[in-house]
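Per-residue structure
===
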Amino acid sequence: MAGTIILPEDQKIFSMKELKEKGFSQYKVSKLVDEGKLIKLNKSYYENAEYRGEESDFYYTEAYAPKGVICLLSAAVYYHLTTFIPDAVDVAIPRKAKVSTVPDWPQMNVHHYTDDRYELGVTTVREGKNEFQIYDMEKTVVDIVFYREKVGIEETKEILVTYLQRKDRNLNRLLKYAELMKCDKAMRQYLEVLV
């Protein structure tokens, strides 16, 4: 049939805006949902049921927490800094932002960050047509030390030890971030013990 638009198989999550830009009408989107090709996540986002590619819970962040940035233990796992596997995705959002619906799956732990903490060290990861925002490795380590009571002292120590063994670590950036996040004293204490 001429003029049929097909869903790209290499993209997991679509916003309604993206679907409209690709030429899908509201009617066509509803039809794709009825046919089981799209799964409605909420009023603005859909999951591609025919997705072929790497799976990641991080792809759902945009749908449920549009300003969300992968943080804390989830980011530490992404950078291979810990062997601990969290049971939910850690997502940072600005203090005043709201999350309309939190899904049953993947589970999300939403953390409200002050603006300066939220904005520092954000990086975008693109995997094919999928993308998510995550804090860079140094910001992740600083946040872990800052929230060490919440994260766990053993996990914090493991993450720091692993980070210090990395060839791609950037101690200058780590200390600069720690200073900006008012956590340089705790960071230096840890470093003195571990180095």
